[in-house]
Amino acid sequence: MKKTQRDLYTARLSKQILDADLQPDVGVRASIINMFRTNHAALAGLIVILLIILAAVFAPLITRYDPNALNLANMRKPPSAEHWFGTDDMGRDVFSRVIYGGRLSLMIGFVPSVISLVLGTVLGLMAGYLGRHVDAVIMRLADVVLAFPSLLLAMVVMYTLGSSILNMFIALSIINWAGTARVVRAQTLSLKEKEFVEAARSMGVSRFSIVFKHILPNCLPNLIVLFTLDIPGAIMWESSMSFLGVGDPNAASWGLMVSQGKSYAYMCPWLILAPGLAILVTVMAFNFLGDGLRDAIDPYMKT
Amino acid sequence: MDNILEIKNLITSFASDGRKERAIAVNGVDLAIPRGKTVGLVGESGCGKSVTSLSVTGLLAENGRVESGEALFQGRDLLRLSEKELRAIRGNDISMIFQEPMTSLNPVIPVGVQVAEAARLHEGLDKATAKARTVEIMRKVGIPEPERRYGQYPHQLSGGLRQRVMIAMGMLLKPDLLIADEPTTALDVSIEAQILRLMRDLQRENGTAILMITHNLGVVAEICDEVYVMYAGEVVERADVFTLFKSCAHPYTRGLMGALPRMTPKGQRLYNIRGTVPNLWAMPVGCRFAPRCEFAAERCHGEKPPLLDLGGGHLCRCFAPRGLEDEHHG
Amino acid sequence: MDELLRAERLVKEFPVKRGVVHAVSDVSFSIRKGETLGLVGESGCGKSTLGKLLIDLLTPTSGAVWFRGEDLSRMKGQALRTLRRGMQMIFQDPYASLDPRMRVGDIIMEPMNAHRVGKNRAERVEMVRELMDQVGIRPELFNRYPHQFSGGQRQRIGIARALALNPELVICDEPVSALDVSIQAQILNLLGDLQQQRSLTYLFISHDLNVVRYLSDRVAVMFLGQFCELSPTEQLYAQPRHPYTRFLLDAVPQPDPTLRDAERALLVGEVSSPVNPPSGCRFHPRCPYADARCRQEKPDLVEMAPGHLCACHHPLADREIL
Predict the structure, then answer these.
(1) Where are the domains of chain B?
(2) DSSP class of B101
(3) B1-79+178-184+212-330: CATH homologous superfamily?
(4) Backbone φ and ψ of B23, nearest 5°
(5) Which of A21, A199, A220 sits opposite C150 (nearest CB)?
């Protein structure tokens, strides 16, 4: 077909209009930034988390005392200018112990969450995309895990494997993966039916590519939210277990500190208040952040 | 003239996340619906046709706001009424049907009960009579086995049947005005034809005026007496239906007609209105259609054309309305 | 004319809780090289399922699809992949058919990656940019995400993706039904231009009889999983033989108010369910001509006039008014 002068003009004009008409980028990233602007709890959560991480990393720079240095002359002293959070029953500086304990508690928050995230994602993708027998096996396994009370299951694992920090990671990973797998499976099932996945199949894109290029990236926003909410969960479980005496007795996490301080709860309340507050603040910060992220991501996931 | 609804200079704005200024979705619309007639409001998505009806009936989403104007219905300005008064009017004098009737039906109450409830509230009937009336009317709108359908929930009915339930409700209430927002868009053509016929029956029987909001010029030709064409929040043309289809004057309306595959022989290119509808936040200064108009002159880009009367109530918002003799395809 | 694709007694059944959905029941036809075959029918008639069977997105319960003279069901591995490259699909929903997390350039490039087209990424990027230009999207927008584009623009992206492997047959599944009239015209013109430039063959699936009439050389009318009529376009619209086709044509609201009071036949009743389709001719419960034979015996597609097939025991005579 021969192009007339008008066709050329039309083409030029429509290109200009097409250009002017592009919608602004309001992807996940922009929506998250916007969320931090309006949701101050989430912003506060983010800042607190960053501070806690910084404190844990630079612990030697912000504490004056060795967390394990005994000072029997200075036992069970209440908070003072010298010892901000007081001292414990062996004269150790509670502030230093809380800061150093933060290293451990954060690790306990992160490591099992990463393991269960990876495990749950892989299993969830397999169950959702492969379906049939794979799905049945993985999901029944998840049902079993979810049917047990989490704390009981974790304690059984700890009793069987022995009390060490490594086994704590294993126990916490075991109780968390099933939830992630379920979410990922459900999302995979719905994404699998989407037209863009169908389009990829019609073009001869391999299964592997479809899972990793289409399904996983579309699960990612939800996984980030899950991950942020898994961390405080793990910290809580570890604290509970340490309090109940099935934690690693040599790992001075916040939970263990609360547990050890409980005998002096009336006489020296700072012994449980300091680590207890640390747990509370950390868990709340992660929850605020996770809730904010979920709100920011949810509307985007719907469109 | 005796108008059941008269909208004057309606301006409606919307707030959007992350933007300071509000977007003007409806910019000074005048529209009159004569008693017992069907008025079409046509335009493409985002032109403000639905917002116009939602503004008048007080059903705007939370971020929407009527900035000014009036909407006279039975001597009262709907825009100044309280939520309670509006609800009473919507229940009795104005009925509405939407593209997806699912949203207007309560999902946990059987459809028949919902219609009967409306009958009881409206006519003060007792339960048994209301049920009998409902079944009778459901049969009348062509719902097969109305006794069985009476007890079914909305999700158990097909889209066509749900739309018929909404029309049954409309017939029962005998409203003065029926606002139908794309009522057949989600339906198959054979069901669409049935629904359109039903709406005409409803009108003939009760003298109901209809505001038909649609993007489908075929539906307009089928059922409307008068037509308003909207573009980017403004009415750009108004005419009776025969005039509009015989000699529309605005370049946009002509473009829409030319873009219809029905009007173009095979092998010949369809008329292209180039580009897309302007962004609500970046409206052209002069004529809003000018950037897409192939006849736009310098004046069109700087000055907004008024709604000119071409005679006989044929209004057109253009400095150089196309006359009858002008060829369609430029 | 050369036959490009042939469907042979295609059947697709989906088991559901209450029985079996007979989505496609014994459909045979062929598509000729270079033509546009329109496929019309109302929702639930099985036209989309048929399209997916042809392109191997669904496996037929029985029957076969022949493409370029090869039986798809008898092919495997690389040979099947190579053959399949010649058939691509354009999808209905421009919002759901593009992955929201991928850049549009990568979306168009995906089929090239899957089939290892081009020497390297740079070469593929160049090809994508060329395609974008052809469908009217500025190549500079390579790195934008789908949500930044309007519906019409996204459909252009979907078209570019379908053309990335240089197919011979493109199955268009309601490609314009989600678009406004003026945008629909742009896309239809684009599809027409591309057909000329690349000598494409189209199967155009749509519920819009006006669009199908404008675009198609031949039209097939589908009802509850079966073809009831297949004919050259103008002949079908001027002289429908199957009562269902006639009803369908009469039901379309035409953009001409002078026709509004014309005598027209309106179909009554609701669409029957494909779960337990009626016996014999599936249209018989709604057909004014149905008799005992229609209730028992399934009519075959019979040639009424050259190229005009109709499956009806009582086809309409010339210019018959219902």
Answers:
(1) 1-79+178-184+212-330
(2) G
(3) P-loop containing nucleotide triphosphate hydrolases (3.40.50.300)
(4) -90, 135
(5) A21
| Of A1, A18, A34, Cβ closest to residue B275 | A18
Which domains does chain A possess?
28-60+89-297 (1.10.3720.10)
Asked if C163 is an interface residue toward chain A (Cβ–Cβ < 8 A), one would say no
Mutate to test the interface with B, among C214, C267, C272 (most CBs of B within 10 A): C214
The tens digit of pLDDT for each residue in C54-88 reads 998 899 999 999 999 889 888 888 888 888 899 99
pLDDT of residue C269: 67
Residues 179-198 of A with CB under 8 A from C: 194-196, 198
Smallest Cβ–Cβ distance between B272 and the set C185, C207, C256 belongs to C185
Q: What's phi and psi for B159, nearest 5 deg?
A: -55, -40
Query: Strand B94-97 vs strand B177-181: parallel, antiparallel, or unpaired?
Result: parallel
DSSP character at residue B35: T
Strand partners, C224: none
Q: Is the whole-model pTM more than 0.90?
A: no
- Which residue, among C156, C139, C168, C138, has the nearest Cα to C97 in the 3D structure? C156
User: How far is the alpha carbon of A129 from chain C, nearest alpha carbon, in Å?
Assistant: 16
Query: Mean pLDDT in chain B?
Result: 86
- Look up the ipTM and state it: 0.83
Instruction: Give the three-state DSSP class for A194.
Output: coil
Nearest chain C residue (CA) to B142? C269
Q: Which helix (H) or strand (E) holds B28?
A: strand B23-34
C250 inside 8 A of chain A by CB: no
- The candidate with the shortest Cα–Cα distance to C212, out of C240, C249, C246, is C249
pLDDT tens-digit readout, A208-235: 889 988 888 888 888 888 888 888 888 8
d(CA B299, CA C293): 70
Interface contact C248-B256, CB threshold 8 A: no
The DSSP string of B172-234 is HH--SEEEEESTTTTS-HHHHHHHHHHHHHHHHHH--EEEEEES-HHHHHHH-SEEEEEETTE
Structure tokens that stand for B175 in this block:
């409203």
> In whole angstroms, what separates CA B226 from the centre of its chain?
12
**CA-CA distance, A60 to A216, in Å (whole number)?**
40
User: Per residue in A31-85, pLDDT tens?
Assistant: 778 788 888 888 999 999 899 889 888 888 887 777 777 777 777 777 777 777 7
Burial of B222 (0-12, 13-18, 19+ CB in 10 A): buried
Sign of CA dihedral B126, B132, B133, B134: positive
